[in-house]
Amino acid sequence: MSRILLLTLTNLLVVVIFGFLLKLLGLKDNVNQISLFIMIIFGFAGSIISILLSKLIILNSINGKIIIKPINKNEIWIMKTILNISKKKKIKMPEVIIYKSNDINAFATGPCSNNSLIGLSSNLIKYMKKNEIEAVIAHEISHISNGDMVTMGLLQGIMNTFILFLSQIITSLICNQEKKNNQKFNFLQNIKTTIFTSLEIILGSLSNIIIMGFSRYREFRADADAAKLVGKNNMILALNRLKISYKTINNSNMITFYINGGKLNVLNNIFNSHPSLDDRIKALINFKN
Which residues form the catalytic set? Predict the structure, then answer.
């Protein structure tokens, strides 16, 4: 409920701020209230839908099955471990999926802390020791209990709305400044869509810096929470084990959900969804419970 309330209040705040800016800039005639609400709906709609359907989306994108009843010792231990850590974090036990992958990885997703899903790759179970798997599980459950998936969606929705609004405002300002020169004004009107689309791309790239910055922060926070639950040495061992698996994740849209973000682009670090494993290990070494 608190997340829904936050989303509602955020929408109201966006309406108030945008309405004030429109009046201040004298652009109420260019962007009316109906257009404003349409931009807000489009800005948040995609994020809200992706949050609500996140479990279904990722289940359809990977080859795996939800464990209904454990059929071997590994599955029994995994289910018991997830149940125990969930109880510690006071959330409902997530659904669990084991999926086939050459990658050593795991993810968490879901619309809320009591309706979530944890996925573990087959190679993670194969190559990690139990204390390392437990640390990974603690990391993913921390994401769930912190509401990181919802917060990421909310942040994306806010950024999308601002992009649409600012693109419209800047486009209107550019065209309005040339009203005196009718020929040039008419030309700008003809390419108005091109100007708007170009601004969307530019502003979208800039907003991605903020979104990825938060994504990196939440990874550090989930590592620290896991360290509190199972010990920082176990979390460090798990991160070190992930170093042997740097394969690119096929579904780039879901990359922020995984514990291992794959290869990082050193030149474009501000666009990475995850900090480097070395940076995460260094942060844990300096972390004090």
Answer: 140
